[in-house]
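Schema walk-through. Below, the input block comes first and the output block second. Nothing else is stored per chain. Lengths vary across the set, and this one has 347 residues.
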Amino acid sequence: MESGIFHTTYEKDMALRRTPVMRWRIILALTAVLIFPFLADGYQLTLANQIGIAAIGAIGLNILTGFTGQISLGQGAFMAVGAYSAGLLMTRMGLPWWLTIPIACVITAVVGALFGIPSLRLKGLYLAIATLAAQQIIEWLITHWTGLTGGVEALVLPSPKLFGIRLNTDFNFYWVILLFLIITIIFAVNLFRTKIGRAFIAIRDQDIAAEVMGVNIFRYKLLAFATSSFFVGLSGALLAHYRGIVNYERFTIETSIFYLAVVIIGGLGSVSGSIYGAIFMTLLPAVLTNIGRALGDTMPGLAGVLPFVQQAVFGITIILFLVFEPEGIAKIWRDIKDYFRLWPFSY
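--- output ---
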């Protein structure tokens, strides 16, 4: 019977997955995502791609909010910076699509760090208002700087190609998103095993104590904003190349609230929770839409109120998680694993 985890070397103790069960879960998950696109239809692939992009953005936000404790309501704006940077680099400067992605990420990281400067003096609700101002400022610049962004007109991107193969189809772009998602997960998981990641967590838990212990609060807060914005910009750049069109309406305050809901429902301070939250919050509207279509014949009036029902369910879901499980889906999954690991004993 299992009575603990005992390691005889530092390598085993520092491993990301320290038990055979953990390693098998990773293998099964990778096998499932590799097989999935060959069995799924176009609609299911579209949902999977949306989940992948949302997961990358949610991990970026979780680095800032869940691990560093800095509330942000400007993720939609930072996604817009990544999307427009990738689009403009490709359409105006003629750069290849694969090169526009890292450059767009760096540009978004710089912008995120600039708007993170107030975090030295602000925290909590005041910092949230400051990041909300960033959302409004960037959105205003996009819609009014017509010479650069085209204003309210959509920015159309040419199809990304690799070895003559068009990538912005649901099946082909699935592999691009999956590659970047795996890189993001590996980076984020390892980040919090380093000095920088531990400094982020120390700032979240008690910034004054962290400063007393020698943590440079201002530098690490800016680094957290830059790192978070880097991955949010990555999700925006991927969305731009996947859709082939960039419009400011995709990156409003509703997008920022959506990503905040993803990390809250998935689990603050959890990389896997960001993925769970992205899956849940992407599939929930799809399920409600399909239910509404199925009931459309018997209840014709339902179609008119369906958008309001979706918004109500969205809000109620957040409230229920905050009341009954503040640590999100990640905590629920952890409890399930603990139950089966300890069964039939309750202690």
